[in-house]
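Here is this case:
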Amino acid sequence: MNYEDYIEQGLNGEAPLKLILRGSIQNSGNEKVGVVSVAYATLDKRLAESKIRELAAENPSHYYMVYSVPLDVDLTTLSHYPSIAISGDDLRD
């Protein structure tokens, strides 16, 4: 699957909450640090699609992903829950 396929999968998931995560590399003194943060949350699929496209266009050096997230569930018990992997290679020049 490509990036657009993952976006569509996240937007079209059955769970009601659409959660947009942002992955970025930040400089912290002499080191680079990978940071994953929640960028946006909504129950409206159309707003989620608009916002992820807006954020990606405004910040092309960041990585955005959208997830459909169930409410009132321990997300760590799911087979896949909202996360973005940042590898050591991402932190190298």
Helices lie at 3-11, 45-58. The mean pLDDT is 93. The chain is about 25% helix and 35% strand. The first strand starts at residue 17 and ends at 28.
